[in-house]
Write a structure and sequence with these properties.
63% of the residues lie in helices and 6% in strands. The protein has a two-stranded antiparallel sheet with strand order 1-2. The protein is built from 3 helices and 4 strands; from the N terminus they run ββαββαα. By secondary structure, the protein is mostly helical.
């Protein structure tokens, strides 16, 4: 049972006439976000080097932009917008929770390993 896919992005703000145009529109959006990441990675503005929640603000921007790209790829290319609300929530919320959990674990363990190398002793003996 075939049905037409929605030819709009950003919750209907941009509408396309064909699937080919939509693919190009999505490509332009993802390219734009990637260019922002690359430019910020090359320039590394001093204003974004301050600490925010234990990490540089620039790193938080990279993490947020990566999550935005992953969410949008799932939403458009995996056709999650065409699925039922409960399935969308189950897939997207689970992925977001696991990504945030992974970030927490990496930051916590990375900070511990950094302190061990910096101070030369173990703070916590598990």
């Amino acid at each position: 049972m075939a049905h037409e896919h929605k030819l709009e992005i950003f919750r209907g703000l941009v509408k396309f006439k064909s699937n080919t145009q939509k693919i190009w529109g999505v490509l332009v959006f993802l390219t734009f976000v990637t260019i922002i990441e690359v430019v910020l990675g090359i320039i590394k503005p001093e204003v974004l080097m301050g600490q925010v929640l234990g990490m540089k603000a620039l790193n938080w921007i990279f993490i947020i932009l990566t999550i935005v790209k992953a969410y949008y790829i799932t939403w458009d290319f995996m056709h999650m917008r065409d699925e039922t609300r409960s399935l969308r929530r189950m897939v997207v919320w689970t992925a977001i929770f696991l990504i945030l959990y992974l970030i927490f674990i990496l930051l916590k363990e990375g900070g511990y390993v950094f302190d061990v190398y910096k101070d030369g002793f173990i703070k916590n003996d598990f």
